[in-house]
C-alpha cells in the first residue's frame, strides 16, 4: 500500500501551479507590452485599433475579425493565438521573435509592393469578402512581397454579366453584359449584341472605383456592389460573387489609374478624316469569307474579308469578292483591338469576336481550323502594329500613402 504523501510534498505540489501561473502572467504581460508598442497599435491587416490576437509564425498582431480569417488559412500559413486567453504558450523564444518582427517589419515584407489599384480593407466597416481577399493575397499568394514589373496596358479583355443600377429608379437593377478593353468599359443588353447600350470612358478624367468595406468604399453598399465615379455620372454595379467583384474592381482600378490624364492622347482615340486612307487591299495578308453579324438588325450575312497589316491594321469586308476596284462595304479598325472566342455568347460554332473601341464584331468562320487561322492572322497584325497604349506605368503605391 502506498504511503500517504508527506506534508512537505503536498506543499511543494501546491506551490508548483502557482509558480507556473506566475510565470505565465509575466510572459503574458510581456506580450501585452509588445502589443502596446506604437507599431503594433493597429491590426496588421485592417488597421483596427488595439488588436488582441497574434499570428505567432508571422509575428503580427491582428484583430479578432482578421484572426478568424487567419484560422481558415491553416496552421501551415498562420498560427493564431490570443494575447489574453492563451497565457501558457509564450515561450521566451516566441516573445523574442514577436518583438523582433511586429507589424511594421511584417508590413515592410508582405506589403513591399502593393499596387495602387488593389482593394484594401478598412476596419470601420469591412466585409468578410474584402478582408479575406486581402489576407489571402498577402500571406497565401504573397502577391506583394517583391516589386512587380511595370504594368503595361492593354491586357486581355475582361467580360461578364453584372447588374447595373438604373439612373432613374435607384431600386431597379438590370443585368448587362460588360466588356472592358483599354480605356473603354462597354455594356450590352446581351452578350451576342454588337452595339453597346452605353460606354464608360475610363480615360475621361478621374475615375474612382469604390468597394464596400474597402479603403474609400461606400458603407451603404452591399457586399457585392461597387461604384464607378466618373466626372459626369456615378454607376453602381453588382457582381455575381466575391471573386467577380474583386476581378472587376481591381481591373477597373488598374485601367483608370493607367489611363488617367491620357484622355487627350491621340493614340487613345481612333479618328481622322479617312480611317482607311492608305490601306491597300492588294497588300492583304489574309483573305477569305466569313459570316458577319449586323450591328442594328443583328442578321448574319456572308462577307468577303481582306486583312491588311501595317501601323493601322484594318479588316476590310465586301459584299462580293474584291477585285481591286470595289469599294469595301465597311471595315474593322484593329489598332488596340482584342479577340476572344464567342461560341458560347453568340450561340454559334466557330464564332469569335473582335472588340474595338466603339463596338464588338461577331464573325463566324467555316470550321474550327479556319477560325484558328483567322484569329492567329488578326492577332499577328495587332501585335505588329504600332502599340495603341505603349506606356509603361509603375502602379506601386507610394510608401507614404499606405495605411499605417
TrEMBL record:
GO molecular function: GTPase activator activity; zinc ion binding
Residue ranges of domain Arf-GAP in the record: 28-152
Domain of life: Eukaryota
InterPro entries reported in the protein's UniProt record: ACAP1/2/3-like (IPR045258), ARFGAP/RecO (IPR037278), ArfGAP_dom (IPR001164), ArfGAP_dom_sf (IPR038508), PH-like_dom_sf (IPR011993), PH_domain (IPR001849)
CDD domains found in the cross-reference section: ArfGap, PH
Disordered: annotated span: 1-27
Organism from which the protein derives: Plasmodiophora brassicae (Clubroot disease agent)
Keywords: GTPase activation, Metal-binding, Mitochondrion, Zinc, Zinc-finger
Residues covered by the PH domain: 155-257, 283-383
Descriptive protein name: Arf-GAP domain-containing protein
SUPFAM superfamilies membership: ArfGap/RecO-like zinc finger (SSF57863), PH domain-like (SSF50729)
Entry keyword annotation includes Mitochondrion: yes
Gene3D superfamilies: Arf GTPase activating protein (1.10.220.150), Pleckstrin-homology domain (PH domain)/Phosphotyrosine-binding domain (PTB) (2.30.29.30)
A UniProt-annotated Pfam family: ArfGap
